[in-house]
């Protein structure tokens, strides 16, 4: 290891440009790194797709005939109703991915390395959440194809349908910031995976995702109606044209203005959890 | 003028534990400071503070002429850190790892690419450059980690236990790199539990224990502080031990210590090799057969024990040693320390 001595003059790194340009550039470097990683662990992506596909099949065929939506118990009507819920649940699973990835980086000392570099302070987390967004998008595309195969159809123009997917992905992006905070707060990647998932079950089930919230006890119904998750599900259903004809008119504000509520909730979650996560990152100790 | 690494009164507490309890450091440019101490002494905490990863509760630190607390991002441009674990992304190739680090040091992607190729060559990783780091051996990962710390040729380097877990060959290679770097003008702060390593690499050594610097100086100064040389004799017959003791007492400058079960006698001396020859002649003349004899200079382990009263390495390492006889406690521990060090070699 002594063949070539590096030249004596010591060069510090170029002066950071700072600001938004550096921040974006650093985030992209980290996002690229995470995407390369993901592509080299294809089983993660495959499991990420299998789970929602399984849910589509289970819910639509097992529960399909027994759940009444808008007065109809036809499995076909339920399948259309269900899909927005499955999409929304799928995008929130990005939480666990972000959490486990960041906990793993902490555990392996990579976060220390990044923190010792003259890089933008939020970039490690932004890069990770952006990479998760890419992965989530791919999962949603595969899932949409499967849904079309089992009979799901949209009944609105392409613009609205794409807007519906946009809201779903925005929700997923927001949730990956919650995952980032979880990942920075736990000691092991395993804890981040389970910690990133358990709370998603009550969150996604006490909602309008799988059954209409109207039949829930009043107490749960209020939670379901104000659940950020429900707003996006409702909005996606509207934009996909998947609300069955006899579906009762909503009474709660977020359900009446689902698109607006969905955007507001997601933006609020991003702003809050990004702040917490970046603060936590700056003081992170492996 | 303060050195390339300068710290004054660093204090950091974690709950009840004072991980740093008023640490002062001053490392002149292009020299190596060895921070020597057992696990939990505060070495890593000191490195974390100096590399901007941790804010101290109080104190001041200046690295490469920049205030660490006031301008952490400026400091980050001028330092390289190689931590206790090889902090590389195992799903990225060696080349991708180095390019990423280069870009995060704000190099252009072209410059980062060129530098990565150069470092892979230099660290004998060129053949493995396009394999994921997952497939690398422990030594290769360490080399990649060190290469990542050197991407911008930082004027100041921090290495936290760089050779822990490496086999002797890889350790020697790493030592060669370190010496080359320092010859090229890099200032290095190195933490280690290996006394031999500090002895070998560091110009100055700070011995830390419980968050405090308990001694500092060159390796020779520290050794001198512990006292001079000793003659160590292992006699062949247990029956000869008493007589051998009398002989040694005649040459010694202090109390002779005796270890019954190993038949080893140790006495502090002055006079070096010449005296050793006399001792051998005298023992031979009396017909005392010896298995081993030698002149021992104090090791850094002895230094550590005489300073702290406990061994640098976990106590269980010495569990095999029987209680010594006829020696005062500090000395007894001293010999244990040495036995352990020889085992480490």
From TrEMBL, chain A:
InterPro entries: ABC2_TM, ABC2_TM_bact-type, ABC_2_transport, Nod_factor_ABC_transporter. It is found in: Cell membrane; Membrane. Keywords: Antibiotic resistance, Cell membrane, Membrane, Transmembrane, Transmembrane helix, Transport. Its main location: membrane. Pfam families: ABC2_membrane (PF01061). The chain crosses the membrane at residues 45-69, 81-103, 124-150, 162-184, 191-211, 253-273. It is a multi-pass membrane protein. The keyword Nuclease does not apply. Residues 43-284 form the ABC transmembrane type-2 domain. The keyword Cytoplasm does not apply. Belongs to the ABC-2 integral membrane protein family. This is Transport permease protein. It comes from Streptomyces cirratus.
Automatic annotation (TrEMBL), chain B:
It is a peripheral membrane protein. PROSITE patterns: ABC_TRANSPORTER_1, ABC_TRANSPORTER_2. Residues 312-345 are annotated as: Disordered. The keyword Translocase applies. Pfam families: ABC_tran, DrrA1-3_C. Residues 5-235 form the ABC transporter domain. Keywords: Antibiotic resistance, ATP-binding, Cell membrane, Membrane, Nucleotide-binding, Translocase, Transport. It comes from the Bacteria. Gene3D superfamilies: P-loop containing nucleotide triphosphate hydrolases. This is Daunorubicin resistance protein DrrA family ABC transporter ATP-binding protein. It comes from Streptomyces cirratus.
